[in-house]
Amino acid sequence: xxxxxxxxxxxxxxNMAENLQKLLPQVLxxxxxxxxxxxxxxxxxxxxxxxxxxxxxxLIRSPQNRGASxxxxxxxxxxSDAALIHFIDADMDLATKENPAVAxxxxxxxxxxxxxxxxxxxxxxxxxxxxxxxxxxxxxGSIFTAVPPLTDCLREKPRAVKALRRISMPGRKSxxxxxxxxxxxxxxWVAEGNMLIQSGVxxxxxxxxxxxxxxxxxxxxxxxxxxGVKRRFDPSIEVIHHYxxxxxxxxxxxxxKAALYLIRKHGLVxxxxxx
Length: 275
Prior knowledge:
Spore Coat Polysaccharide Biosynthesis Protein SpsA, Chain A
């Protein structure tokens, strides 16, 4: 039965017309059961790019810019509960062939572990791993485990890397080890830019929280955990991230605002004690 599951590609987009021009042929060449571009009221020629692919790509366009979370939720009314959704950010390239077949195999492999969301590997153009492929629960404790930015700074310093490996840093096992080949692992949250999720599961929790423009993966994971739905990182599906920043100076402000919102939403006690 798993082999018959439809797998659809959902590509959130905001002013990334040139990237869509490169990504869509890659996606269409992989045999997805549906390809959707979720547009967040772009002001560039993204709609014209999608039109070039005629009926092969469906454009779902928001009348106003609402942010990545609300934009991704546009897929909910366009797929069946049985489908697997593959969220792929518009500034990615596909590094894995036959993604739909791999997606079906992954969910079959983890079916007995109640896994409902799987994060794939996000790599950089130079071949290195993105340090935020997955991570621990959003809490006070995880804020003080500065593993990703620290390891990122030390990538090109062999002696520092060697010293870091000897130090038992708090929370180290909860973040990707960018100095070693990536391996499948159970985790708390997975990056939304290359994420597989069961449509029925996604719908059951209401998708991403539309009121935030950052930390949406952490919020989704908290809600999935409450429902007993597990998350897993698996590098079998890989994308290359080209880092097109459409938020600019607003990024930091949005992250701080979202963090405070999540503390209020899920409770201060949980934030202080979880993880």
